[in-house]
Design a protein that fits this description.
The protein has about 290 residues and is α/β, with parallel strands linked by helices. The chain is built from 13 helices and eight strands. The protein has one domain: Aldolase class I (TIM Barrel), CATH 3.20.20.70. Its EC number is 4.3.3.7.
């Protein structure tokens, strides 16, 4: 599972001004990230605004991304939802060519019990030959995948190999790290806490910030993987203001503003998301210039 150690990027989906998918921008983004030294990419995670894409658009983005990546780095497909049967059918029909794993967020809005969450991921694990990475993000889903459920899934299904953990609950993170089976991957799903999570044994991050600043994010993560947390404090601190700005008016609007300034792709987002305000955009540009 070493291919998922280090920096993964939850890629944005670039759009043209009229809202159509910008494939030229997506190719530039992919090459920008690989040149920035990241270890793997996530196509159509929630940062990719996957909820606003049609099923046909998702198929096209998955295929295009695989074609451009060409095996240069590991590649993960984001496939999730709160209709388990639909998620399972999507996974069964998914062309796995070029993909190394599936990342699936826990069901949103419906607030399932822990048993419901377990059964949801059981169905996903049994539907694919690919490794599966759980994604726990209670601030967006409305429910938490607790530590006992994580370790139960990790023990019961060999192809459930890790979790992107974005609860911010360090008591829960401690319990998972203590009780998880050997080899199960803890991955930070929250840019601001990558360093402290890696100090507890996380193997890296699936980053939003890294869309714009892949080299800086990768440098931080590599220092943490090497156990040099004192040296890692400098890049960690340097990224604090930039990271805060990425989320202050919604993600991925913030990082798309930085990407536009870097001439990678435009800053268009699909409703109900909107672009950041002019004041925040100016601050993002200033921080981008400072760090890039």
């Amino acid at each position: 599972m070493n291919k998922f150690y280090g920096t993964g990027i939850a890629m944005v989906t670039p759009f043209q001004a009229d809202g159509k998918i910008d494939y030229e921008g997506l190719e530039k983004l992919i090459n920008h990230l690989i040149a920035g030294g990241v270890e793997y990419l996530v196509s159509l995670g929630t940062t990719g605004e996957s909820a606003t894409l049609s099923s046909e658009e998702r198929k096209q983005v998955f295929a295009f991304t695989s074609k451009i990546v060409k095996g240069r780095v590991a590649l993960i497909a984001g496939i999730g939802g709160n209709n388990t049967a639909e998620v399972v059918e999507t996974i069964k029909q998914f062309d796995i060519t070029g993909y190394d794993a599936i990342l699936s967020a826990s069901p949103n809005y419906t607030k399932p019990t822990q048993e419901g969450i377990y059964q949801h991921y059981k169905a996903i694990a049994e539907a694919t030959p690919l490794p599966v990475i759980l994604y726990n993000v209670p601030s967006r889903t409305g429910s938490n995948v607790n530590a006992d459920t994580v370790t139960r899934l990790a023990n019961d299904f060999k192809n459930i190999i890790g979790i992107k953990e974005a609860s911010g609950n360090f008591d829960q993170i401690n319990q998972i790290m203590r009780d998880k089976p050997e080899g199960f991957l803890m991955i930070s799903g929250d840019d601001p806490v990558t360093l402290p999570m890696m100090a507890l044994g996380a193997v890296g991050v699936i980053s939003v910030v890294g869309n714009a600043l892949p080299r800086q994010t990768s440098d931080l993560v590599r220092l943490c993987l090497a156990g040099d947390f004192k040296a890692a404090q400098k890049p960690h601190s340097a990224l604090i203001d930039f990271t805060r700005l990425m989320f202050v008016e919604g993600s991925p609007a913030g990082v798309k503003t930085a990407l536009k300034h870097l001439n990678i792709c435009g800053d268009t987002v699909r409703l109900a998301l909107v672009q950041v305000s002019s004041g925040i955009a100016q601050r993002i540009i200033q921080e981008t210039d400072k760090l890039s």
